From TrEMBL:
One of its GO terms (biological process) is DNA recombination. Keywords: Aspartyl protease, DNA integration, DNA recombination, DNA-binding, DNA-directed DNA polymerase, Endonuclease, Hydrolase, Magnesium, Metal-binding, Nuclease, Nucleotidyltransferase, Protease, RNA-directed DNA polymerase, Transferase. PANTHER family: PROTEIN CBG26694, PROTEIN NYNRIN-LIKE. The keyword Protease applies. The lineage of its organism: Eukaryota, Viridiplantae, Streptophyta, Embryophyta, Tracheophyta. GO terms for molecular function: aspartic-type endopeptidase activity; DNA binding; DNA-directed DNA polymerase activity; endonuclease activity; metal ion binding; RNA-directed DNA polymerase activity. It comes from the Eukaryota. InterPro entries: Chromo-like_dom_sf (IPR016197), DNA/RNA_pol_sf (IPR043502), Integrase_cat-core (IPR001584), Integrase_H2C2 (IPR041588), Retrovirus_Pol_polyprotein (IPR050951), Rev_trsase/Diguanyl_cyclase (IPR043128), RNaseH-like_sf (IPR012337), RNaseH_sf (IPR036397). It holds the Pfam family Integrase_H2C2. The keyword Acyltransferase does not apply. It comes from Paspalum notatum var. saurae. Residues 301-468 form the Integrase catalytic domain. This is Integrase catalytic domain-containing protein. Transmembrane segments: none annotated.
Amino acid sequence: MTSLTKKNAKYLWSSNCEEAFQTLKKLLTSAPVLARPDVTKPFDVYCDASGNRLGCVLMQEGRVIAYASPNYPTHDLELAAVVHALMIWRHYLLGNTCHIYTDHKSLKYILTQPELNMRQRRWLELIKDYDLEIHYHPGKANVVADALSRKAHCNFIEARPTVRVLCCEIDENEMPTGQHAELYSLIIEPTIKDLVIAAQKQDKGMAHIREGISDKQKAYFTLDEQGVLWFKNRLVVPKDMELRKKILDEAHTSLFTMHPGSNKMYQDLKQKFWWTRMKREIAKYVSECDRIKADHLKPAGMLQPLAVLAWKWEDVHMDFIVGLPRTQKGYDSIWVIIDRFTKSAHFIPVKTIYHAKTYAELYIARIVSLHGVPLTITSDRGSLFVSRFWEQLQHALGTKLIRSSAYHPQTSGQVERVNQILEDMLRACAMTYSTKCDECLPLAEFAYNNSYQKSLEMAPFEALYGKRCRTPLNWSEPGERVTFGPDLVTQAEAQVKMIHNNLKRAQSRQKSYSDKRRRPLVFEEGDHVYLRVSPMKGVHRFGVKGKLAPRYVGPFKITERCGSVAYRLELPPHLAAVHDVFHVSQLKKCLRIEPDLTYEEHPIKILDRKQRATRRRAINFYKVQWSNHSEEEATWEQEEFLRTKYPGFLPSTSN
């Protein structure tokens, strides 16, 4: 066909030309020339008009999305081509940036042209709905739209009949190397009503009812002209558990229902369907849908108070307050360390860039030098507290490390409460005195340690040193009685005993209050549970985030009971970075376990390749994307493993 376009060439349309022309049309209107649109990227529209024809091409990043070429009167054809493209591709272009390319240069100024006819004004109102720019594109370069605008048209009677086929033979549609295509098919399935009617005819248990309805049953059951059984104008569903489950799935999980509660679901279904114990089955079905519904029950797990200690600064709780405004000295965090017995605390300004060695030096200088080495340290699972350096340091000092269960900060509830108090103090200082947090931190520490604590019935300073610290509101008169010698020891012992008793009473009172808002929950080893997903866990742990994320992940098997209210779970490999012990409040029992939760994975794409050299040989590795997984979850596999386990997946090696 190219030779026919040369000058002085004799125009002879042969059968080879016709075959080439039809093949060319077929290739231009199918993958890989045609591509799917990406609504997150800008579109390009090429349009042209010639004689009484116009043509448009929608493209994106150099790839064709769609063609269009309608008939139109000769006047205003160039602008009509633009308007036509905007109208038929409105669902692509509205709300996106697009560039209009035309070989009619005057259209470039249509948006600023002062005089327009009525038709152009009407079309201009439509054009202003879009975020577009009109560019001049020479006619010689605008080949695609120009070809569409010049295509021949004929009457329908004269046209040769064509057959539109969804898919031809696979061999005739081989894709070039490196190109991919997806084939979709639409299967029309029978409706739920048709399935129920068909099941009625096959159900032997309903045969006697269908053969003859007794006078007593006529008040409830009726047969229509097609022999379909109804119960009070409700379609009777036979005892087919697979069919009933299909109805329940459609009424609960489809996009038209979206997980209603049991009562709402029953009220919806009972309008059209009936079967025995229908309400009970619906309630059981909804109760097994655990991953979506909000939990309206009391938190699980009764309060487990820690044992009251015998002396001061034997058990230390510590945590960090992070995300604070950076001060002039570079501090952006606070290390909070409290004694569980006296409630006294130290607030140490730190930087997030500190290494474990720096924290160890601060710990020795600010805690050990003042109070000695504690017996135990309770903390969460922050990076510092799980570092090898920190563990080795505490092991050398003879301190036992106790860490909270995963995502359960209530284990260190005292330090969490102190964090709240300290944040309120710093906020008040910033608002009232306009001071930086590191400047007012020493006074905040003093104010906290000298304030009354309900559980102690005294201030932490008094519990630690035996008397309240002097302040402008708490002064000592000259000649006040001072205790010396053995009396001082006796008074200190009596005060420690009093603190011990006060803490026991406070714990008992707090447990009674807390348990009123909690419920006992016990699991057994081997049970399967769902794991709660809360915003604090983050996308890096469970791959979900935001308000619309699933409320639970799993189910996971319980392998061990750790204490009274904690359990160890059998987590999959992709959650290996998560600590596997969880508080019972983070768990929810799985009521339904599918018989087989496994599925066969197979490699579908090679994303990358690398070679690792050893002393003896070079080992080839391939980055493989697996079925049911995204490219972000691809893994590096050895060539030997892939060739053995999946023969034919890798390209054959040339000798």
